[in-house]
From TrEMBL:
Keywords, comma-separated and alphabetical: Signal
Species name: Esox lucius (Northern pike)
Record carries keyword Signal: yes
Descriptive protein name: Ig-like domain-containing protein
PANTHER family: B-CELL RECEPTOR CD22-RELATED, VASCULAR CELL ADHESION MOLECULE 1
Taxonomic superkingdom: Eukaryota
Endpoints of the signal sequence: 1-22
Residue ranges constituting the Ig-like domain according to the UniProt record: 122-204
Keyword Signal part of the UniProt annotation: yes
Length: 281
């Protein structure tokens, strides 16, 4: 998720041993003070810093305060965190965001002088949110793609009906009222993160046609095997099922025509459905 600058914030450093304000030329500017990003996406938190001549920064890292006291700890993100340095610009990159990553983040610098460590205030407030569809109204339903916080950047929302894309708009609300059809299910996503769908909801009741994938993202080695699984709940009994790729399927009158991967020459001899009951690929 790319960050949008909402106004650079010029701040001063706080010495961990001695507070020195208005002296020298220490300072840090965060590119944004607040970011709201999607669960599962990637975010970049960045800042630029300056220091007086004669000093040298020996180490730099980002951290968050997990407790309410003054004990600062370096948060363990288990391989999801990388740094990018470019002159006096320091960027924190967090992948596969989780809602537990929501926190206030600061950057800390250690100079080659005995005075102490420096912390850039006020930091960046990161909020991580998922998507969900809110259904309101009576016979004519209104659908709204909801988040816990306003997503950072220019956001385009994509709507799906029974798994097929039907619309995209800058509005969080689906453009048309929806009839209370027992069969139909809806979900939403954000453009650029189409693989991060909201959970599918029924417009009426809980027995609409819904497919839930066990995992939305899978990373595997070239040449290895992979199991992709899902569960299905439907208004009608299923008589057959297949897996397909939109890139390998055709269209007719703007409608996707699924083509079974088992009949695709590119997948010949490499695809099987070992457990038809659970719709595994």
């Amino acid at each position: 998720m790319s960050s949008r600058t909402t106004g650079s914030v010029l701040v001063v450093f706080l010495w961990s041993l001695t507070v020195v304000l208005g002296q020298g030329d220490w300072g840090v500017t965060y590119s944004t003070q607040s970011i709201c990003a999607l669960k599962g996406s990637t975010v970049e938190l960045s800042c630029t810093y300056k220091y007086p001549s004669g000093y040298k920064v020996t180490s730099t890292f980002w951290f968050t305060r997990k407790e309410a006291d003054e004990n600062f700890v370096n948060y363990d993100y288990r391989g999801r965190v990388t740094y990018r340095n470019n002159n006096n610009n320091h960027t924190l990159i967090i992948t596969d965001l989780r809602e537990s990553d929501s926190a206030q983040y600061w950057v800390r610098f250690t100079p080659d002088q005995p005075e102490g460590k420096l912390i850039g205030q006020p930091g960046v407030n990161l909020s991580v949110t998922g998507l969900w569809v809110e259904v309101t109204g009576g016979y004519m339903k209104t659908l709204t793609c909801k988040t816990k916080c306003p997503l950072t950047g220019n956001t385009t929302y994509i709507w799906y009906k029974n798994g097929q894309q039907i619309d995209e708009s800058s509005s969080t609300q689906y453009k048309d009222p929806v009839y209370s059809n027992h069969e139909d299910s809806y979900s939403c996503s954000v453009k650029g993160h189409e693989d991060l769908h909201s959970p599918t909801v029924c417009v009426q009741g809980q027995s609409c046609n819904r497919v839930t994938y066990t995992k939305r993202r899978i990373c595997v080695l070239k040449g290895s095997s992979v199991d992709i699984s899902c569960t299905y709940v439907g208004y009608y009994n299923v008589t057959s099922s297949l897996w397909f790729s939109p890139k390998q399927s055709g269209r007719w009158r703007d409608k996707l025509i699924p083509e079974d991967l088992t009949t695709d020459p590119g997948y010949a001899g490499r695809v099987e459905y070992p457990d038809q009951e659970s719709r595994r690929y």
